[in-house]
Design a protein that fits this description.
90 residues, alpha+beta, three-stranded antiparallel sheet, GTP_CycHdrlase_I_reg, GTP cyclohydrolase binding, nucleus, GTP cyclohydrolase 1 feedback regulatory protein
């Protein structure tokens, strides 16, 4: 899985962060200390971690990911991280 989206609410910049959907790599999610949850009102699952965005990005860098873009949407900050195919361990 070469892409990971990391998002957090601006008012909650100290965490939690959403770091994946229900199809994300469970080993990577464990490394990010994420738990699979279902938010009230949603019909899908997502991985949330109590870590701050900086700590999440630092951990992803340890696994070979790099930030390719960052944006803000309303009150949400979103980072897109990518891992090159030759760095992906299968």
């Amino acid at each position: 899985m070469p892409y990971v989206l990391v998002s957090t609410q601006v008012r909650l910049e100290s965490g939690p962060c959403t770091v994946g959907d229900e199809d994300s790599d469970p080993e990577l999610m464990a490394f990010l200390e994420a738990k699979l949850i279902k938010q009230l009102g949603n019909n899908f699952l997502e991985w949330n971690t109590p870590l701050t965005p900086r700590l999440v990005l630092n951990r992803l860098e340890q696994k070979g990911y790099r930030v390719v873009t960052m944006t803000g949407v309303g009150q949400t900050s979103i980072w897109t991280c990518h891992k090159e195919a030759d760095k992906i361990l299968i």
